[in-house]
Amino acid sequence: MSLANAARVLHWFKRGHAIAAVGELSAAMGWPKSTTSRLLKDMAAHGLLERDEPTRRYRVGLLMLELGRSFASGDPMLEAVDQALQEITRETGFSTGISILDGADIVVLRSRPGTHPLRVVTPPGTRGPAAANSTGRMLLGLLPREEVERRFTPYPSGLRPNAPPSLEELMARVDRARLRGWEESSDEALPGLAGVSIAIPGRDGRPALAPYIAFAVAQVDKAGRARLAAMLQDMAASLSPGGLQAFPLHRERSSKEAALG
């Protein structure tokens, strides 16, 4: 089994394909069916994939799911932030979660729905373009400019109209986020979805985290978004006094004032 080819298959599943037949993967990879069949059988034998016998189709195996759970657990900061976000959801009624950066994408690690009748639900494992998310732009702000340019050259096409249309505009949005210490998105990654987020730099080899609050575009005005961002900043500062060193804490009101509306 070629490690590079196995990785290509897993990356293909990562892009939102839940289950696939040999012929489908053969066409997607440009490999002969016999080669594809042998590779998928080997991957299933090692737990990387799982075969559905009635249909003879393949899905991601339990080993990969277990590794994913292991990756998302055991980080004290991740657990502390997730616990604190539960309280923010309780206070505000809005959905909250945590994302990390993966190349030019963001991946949701933790999430919980809000209590408002109009709820925003983004399940863990959801992947989206970092350029079109407040979490992505905050996390990109932790990287050297040259690295951001490398990841986004060529610049991705097909982003929604409200997302940065070019690398230059993306860098301007990242610079703004870095300056004020938080970022917002509105009708970018998904229609009608808005959110605010901050970034907490990673430590001891762990990835940087982007806690977020998500809501429908019409639910929160500009001032309200700044107050929600202040709640996230206060939360992070209380959990790790040095955790926001990369970003200045600019805000007009404290989280206590935000809770009062």
Characterise the protein shown here.
This protein is an alpha+beta fold and about 260 residues long. It has ten helices and eight strands. It has helices spanning about 5-15, 20-30, 35-45, 60-70, 75-90, 135-140, 145-150, 165-180, 220-240, 255-260; strands spanning about 50, 55-60, 95-100, 105-110, 125-130, 185, 195, 210-215. The strands form two sheets. The chain has a six-stranded antiparallel beta sheet, sandwiched between helices. The chain has a two-stranded antiparallel sheet with strand order 1-2. A hairpin with a 2-residue loop joins β3 (about 95-100) and β4. The chain is globular, with a radius of gyration of 20 Å. Mean pLDDT is about 85; it is low at about 245-260.
What percent of residues are in strands?
A: 15-25%
Q: What's the order of the H and E elements? A: HHHEEHHEEEHHHEEEHH
Distance between the termini: 59 Å
* Contiguous uncertain segments of 5+ residues: 243-261
Rounded mean pLDDT score: 87
Structural class: alpha+beta
Strand order of the largest sheet: 5-4-3-8-7-6
Q: What general form does the structure show?
A: globular
Amount of helix:
40-55%
Radius of gyration: 20 Å
